Amino acid sequence: MNIVILAGSNRKNATSTRLGEYAAEIIRAQGHEAHLFNLYEKPLPFYAPDEKQDTDEHLAALNALMLAADAVILSSPEYHGSISGVLKNALDHLSQAHFSGKPVLSISSAGGAVGVSSLTQMQTMVRNLHGINAPEWISIGGAQRRRFEAALDGYEEFEGSQDVEDRVQRVLGSFLNLAQTLTAAKKAL
């Protein structure tokens, strides 16, 4: 399977991006392809429906990756109870052609306890793009973010890090099972 992770932060060492990178490692270890599209490293132009923007190289790369994806993971920090502006901008550039019938997992990183508002907003957008929301999501917040902070060398251990890892691996396992089931059903048609 081919899974695209859209990392929606405009911060160099965002914990939400590092969480997406960790998800990619787990997915690859299970024998699947995982492509992380980092919006910090590959910024997109502001969505402007009246302007021709198909010559932007980052936008063309995102378009191709998303069309080829069997499943998608959206990763965002939670800013003021919402998703990041760069992720919203990226989703505005995409359409039902990129999401229709594909399973989508939403993940977030919040400064507070958890980022539920951003997760529900991502799921609403996925429904409007005709994607299939995974029944679970991943949110890390507060001390749970230490596992993914860039100030640490690699993914450092801290009290409770095993619980975070176990939860991420469990939810990713469930998501991969859903994605495999849906991908097999599409191929059988």
How many discrete domains?
A: 1
**Could you state the CATH homologous superfamily?**
Flavodoxin domain
Rounded Rg: 16 Å
Please give the alpha-carbon distance between the first and last residues.
17 Å
Beta strand %:
15-25%
User: And the CATH topology?
Assistant: Rossmann fold
- Figure out the total of helices: 6
Give average pLDDT, whole number: 90
CATH architectural designation: 3-Layer(aba) Sandwich
Question: What's the CATH class, please?
Answer: Alpha Beta
Overall geometry comes to: globular
> Main beta sheet, described?
6 strands, parallel
Report the helical percentage. Answer: 40-55%
Order of helices and strands, N to C? EHEHEHHEHEEH
Secondary structural class = alpha/beta
The tally of strands reads 6
Low-confidence stretches: none
Helices and strands in order:
Layout: E1 2-7, H1 15-29, E2 33-38, H2 57-68, E3 71-77, H3 85-93, H4 96-99, E4 103-110, H5 116-128, E5 132-133, E6 138-141, H6 161-188
Parallel strand pairs: 1-2, 1-3, 3-4, 4-5, 4-6
Enzyme class: oxidoreductase
Domain NADPH-dependent FMN reductase-like: 1-143
Family: Belongs to the azoreductase type 2 family.
